Every structure is written in C-alpha cells, then in structure tokens.
Amino acid sequence: MDFMDISRKRHTVRKYAQTPVEQEKIEKILEAGRWAPTAVNAQPQRILVLDTKENLEKVREFCTLGWQKKYADLAKESDTADHKANVFYYGAPVVMMVCYDETACWTHPESGKSSGATDATIVAVHMMMEAASLDLGTAWISYFDEEKARKLLGIPDNWQPVCMLYVGYSDEDYVPNEKLSGNRKPLSDTCYFYSIPNEK
User: Fold this and answer.
1) Which of 95, 137, 166, 169 is the most buried (most CB within 10 A)?
2) 174 neighbors 75 (Cβ within 8 angstroms)
3) pLDDT tens, 144-181?
C-alpha cells in the first residue's frame, strides 16, 4: 500500500471491538517502532505493551479524569452516562505506552535539550502508521494522570511517558468524527516556500 494511501486511511478510533489483536501484528507494530529514526541512533524509546485484563483496568483508572463538557462534546465516547467523568480509555485490547529513557537520549551540545520526546514521538508515529497498514485502528492518547500511571504500572523514574497508542479492530458500528479525522487544510495554509509570510 502506498504511504499516502495509509496516511489517508488512518483515523482515530474511539470504540474497539473486543477481538484480540494477533501477536504477529503486535510484533510488526513494535518492529516498525524499532526501525524509526532517533537522534544519533540512540534508541531511547521504552514501550510498555499492556494487553492483560489487569493492566487494561489500570489504564482505565489513570485515564479517568474529571468531567469537562468540551471533551464530552468533542469525543462523546469519553462521556460517562452520569456525566461525572471523562474516560479516555475506549476499550482497546492492546495499549502501547511510549516512553523514553532520560539517561539514554542524545543532548544538544548548545541548547542542552534532550532528544527524548522527539525520538519517542517519531517512534509512536511509525507504529501508528504500521497499525493502519495492518487494518488496525489506533488512538493517540496523551491526556492521562501521569503520576497515577507511574504508580500503577511501576514506571522507572528515568522513563518519561510521552503518549499511549490504543491498538485494535474498530467496533463495527464506530463512525469516525470527521471534524477530528477527515479534514485537512490546503497546503497553502501551512506550507511556505522561500519566504516567511507576513503576519498581521
């Protein structure tokens, strides 16, 4: 499949079928992350694969946050029946938490900035696109209670969580939110050749 076809095919899934993801596909997704570029090839990514009932319950716990109307309106799947919480776990059978090891990153010699967050983001994107090529749905989640996640999962102090990828087959009655997934601005709104645009 052409890369642009995969890019257009990929969309965020917020309701998953309770169908197990084949181990072969999980390994292909992780392998795509392994081959993602990282600064000086340091490969500081550390990926937690959460696919047991016990661990998925932990994900639900640290992804349950105080109710906010704007999120309930944006993603109705996050709204609880009593409107008392937003639950940003959507029933995915596999959750991949993407972290980076702060002790394994390249550091810019002048700015002192770590490459970790950038490296982990690139890895996560490669994994997400591989999942799409395998006809799996994903959701990129960065809104969760990090302190609670660290405690529940026993994440080492030097590992910094960046995001989670929910992975699974889309529920048959799930309809993607076109406002969030389908529209793209024209290139003329986001790309500039040779000159900086005049901002008012």
Assistant:
1) 166
2) no
3) 999 999 999 999 999 999 999 999 999 999 887 776 66
